[in-house]
Specification:
251 residues; alpha/beta; Rossmann fold; seven-stranded parallel sheet; 7 strands; SDR_fam; oxidoreductase; oxidoreductase activity; Short-chain dehydrogenase
Length: 251
């Protein structure tokens, strides 16, 4: 079950944290995984972890906001893997300009970064792999979103939330276009995540206490959900946004 042997996955922002966890999980199920990051060093570190566990990985460092670089990387992965990418996880989404600032205090010069990364970055990656998926009659697109895209929060992330809301809407429309071609498209809206083992224990405990499951999400939690959505068994699940948040919201 959930066997991904014979498939090729591209995971963006996979040099650390949740993207790295998903890349490891996909590789453990047999997929060849193209590990993207802005930093080649980080991408290679994730590849080393995958290969040490017996998997196959390709490091591809590029900026998802560079459409030409995205297309070149997709072509390179196709050539090295011997077959096209048929699983895409759009994970890159934290822009340096995201900040945590109330909107009325946020300089307009900082608006575009989070919007462009979360919308255009994902659009470029989807566009680069979609034709091959439709031609093959099989494909999986997993878009990482956030609770901030679904619920209003008073923590200074309004523009980031707007970007996530926008890309969720795109995924819903895309799912309808590509469903007849055997391609699914879904979003995972993540809740509070433990993104660093070096985090302040007191802060982590405080955040975890607010989650019904009484813990923060982990890379392994994300990886398990992505493996399911990428699997043959999930062929009838498309156009959905799934909350992965320990019960923090249940809508």
């Amino acid at each position: 079950m959930f066997d991904l042997a014979g498939h090729v996955a591209l995971v963006t922002g996979a040099g650390q944290n949740m993207g790295a966890g998903a890349a490891r999980a996909l590789a453990a199920q047999g997929a060849v995984v193209a590990v993207n990051d802005l930093s080649l060093e980080r991408a290679e570190a994730t590849c080393e972890e995958i290969e040490a566990a017996g998997g196959t990985a390709i490091a591809v460092a590029f900026d998802v906001l560079d459409a030409d670089a995205v297309r070149a990387a997709v072509a390179r992965v196709r050539a090295e893997a011997g077959r096209p990418i048929d699983i895409l996880m759009n994970n890159a989404g934290i822009h340096p300009d995201m900040g945590a600032v109330p909107f009325r205090q946020l300089d307009p010069a900082r608006w575009r970064g989070p919007i462009d990364l979360n919308i255009y970055g994902s659009l470029y990656c989807v566009h680069a792999v979609l034709e091959d998926m439709c031609a093959a009659g099989w494909g999986r697109i997993v878009q990482i979103s956030s609770g901030a895209g679904r619920t209003g929060l008073n923590i200074g992330v309004a523009v980031y939330g707007a970007g996530k809301s926008g890309i969720e809407g795109f995924i819903r429309h895309l799912s309808q276009e590509v469903a007849p071609h055997g391609v699914t498209a879904n979003s995972l809206a993540l809740g509070l995540m433990n993104n660093s083992a070096r985090g302040d224990a007191a802060v982590t405990a405080h955040l975890a206490a607010s989650v019904p499951a009484k813990r923060l999400g982990t890379p392994e939690d994300v990886g398990a959900a992505v493996v399911f959505l990428a699997s043959p068994e999930a062929s009838w699940l498309t156009g959905q946004t799934i909350n992965l948040n320990g019960g923090a919201t249940t809508n």
